[in-house]
Amino acid sequence: MTAVAQTTDAGIRRGGVRALWAGNPGAVVQRGLIAARSSSWAVVLSGFFEPVFYLASMGIGLGSLIGSVQTSTGLEVSYAAFIAPALLAVSAMNGAIYDSTWNVFFKLNYGKLYEGMLSTSLGPLDVALGEIMYALLRGLVYATGFMIIMQIAGLNLAWTAILALPAVVLIAFGFASVGMAVTSYMKTFQQMDWINFVLLPMFLFSSTLYPITVYPEFIQWIVMALPLWHGVELVRGLTTGALSPAMWVHIAYYLAMIAIGLVFTTKRLRALFLD
Questions:
Q1: Rounded Cα distance, 156 and 81, in Å
Q2: What is the reported pTM?
Q3: Distance CA 52, CA 48 (A)
Q4: Biggest alpha carbon distance in the chain?
Q5: 110: part of which helix (H) or strand (E)?
Q6: What is d(CA 63, CA 275) in angstroms, rounded to the nearest whole number?
Q7: Beta bridge partners of 70
Q8: Averaged pLDDT of the chain
Q9: Which residues have a Cβ under 8 Å from the Cβ of 87 and sit 6 or more positions away?
Q10: What is the CA radius of gyration of the chain?
């Protein structure tokens, strides 16, 4: 019996307990979907309705007073069409961040879930990718629902708006990767408050509700360093049809976020449970 167990374990985890990858992140996603059945759907839906309420109050209400707004590419659009793609990016960010921070924090420090996962054939990269993929599902659901509302309201101004869906998946992937990496270093609920402390100013100042040109030039450079600004500009360009080479910079920014987040999360899980 012992020999069989040792043989099986060796076959499952090649390279010893330090193996990073078993090729099965889907098991983590499946576990998350099963656990979601017992979740409060009111909490889940709240992340979707928040940007919808912003669009109704700001885009329709305030928009009737503002009129048209000029985008960074010089295109004149209605105020509602200006903030709707920004809120779409925010919706994807919120969905991904919620699952990759608070949920991961509980599983990591209280549920001890990852410790159990890593005692199986799963490696830390499987766990990291699985949790991030599950967070992507939430972000995609939020974004798809909001995209339908935009289409009904006539706020998708070009056929390229359909490309906004893969764009928001990329945005959610970037935020989920970095969110999980940061959360793996958190030890108390008080430390988790720093996440909201960062997200709120980023939401307000990332050219979501008004053009970046309202700021002094040195502030504009700070804003352009924020990840949400890149997501907002990418989605806004796609929904308005104002395509530009700068979109590749936004895409590269999120690819870098994904790579950095995955590396740090994998190393952190390995250090916590395998070393």
A1: 7
A2: 0.84
A3: 7
A4: 77
A5: none
A6: 56
A7: 76
A8: 83
A9: 51, 54, 55, 146, 208
A10: 21
